[in-house]
Amino acid sequence: QVQLVESGGGLAQAGGSLRLSCAASGRAFSSLAMGWFRQAPGNEREFVAAISRSGDSSNYGDAVTGRFTISRDNAKNTVYLQMNSLKSEDTAVYYCAAKINVGYNIYAYVAPAYDYWGQGTQVTVSS
Questions:
Q1: Three-class SS of residue 42?
Q2: pLDDT in tens for each of the 127 residues of the chain?
Q3: What is the distance between the alpha carbons of residues 25 and 101, in angstroms, rounded to a whole number?
Q4: Which candidate, 26, 12, 28, places its Cα nearest to that of 82?
Q5: Distance CA 5, CA 26 (A)
Q6: Distance (Å, whole) CA 55 – CA 49
Q7: Separation of alpha carbons 9 and 62, rounded Å
């Protein structure tokens, strides 16, 4: 069993920045590929970013490419999402997800591929 706890959400102005963190426990963090997804009211869950176990491979959703950066610190069992140049359309609940039984340089960008989910953290961007 893997537990994921997100933090760092809140209110930001358009053009500003926030950094989300997701702390994992219950399994060796280096064995997990990690991802971030988001869901706004009335919308489906949307892929934001993913990173491999090694941290060497990553991928981003089209809406955030060039503005968001995913990273991980295996020593701290934590994955991060640095969000810059925020827009009002980034407003959503952001979820951290973990995938087990995955190759060292593999990431996943579809929600059903993930095995564990955090409870989510709200990000609100005011224009």
A1: coil
A2: 999 999 999 999 999 999 999 999 999 999 999 999 999 999 999 999 999 999 999 999 999 999 999 999 999 999 999 999 999 999 999 999 999 988 888 889 999 999 999 999 999 999 8
A3: 16
A4: 12
A5: 12
A6: 12
A7: 21
Structure tokens at 94: 């952001």
Element (H, E) at 124: strand 121-126
CA–CA distance, 107 with 123 (Å, rounded to integer): 24
CA distance 3 to 101: 16
The answer to whether 106 and 56 are in contact (CB under 8 A) is: no
Structure tokens at 124: 């609100």
* 32 Cβ neighbours under 8 A, 6+ residues apart: 2, 24, 53, 98, 99, 100, 102
Strands 46-51 and 33-39: antiparallel
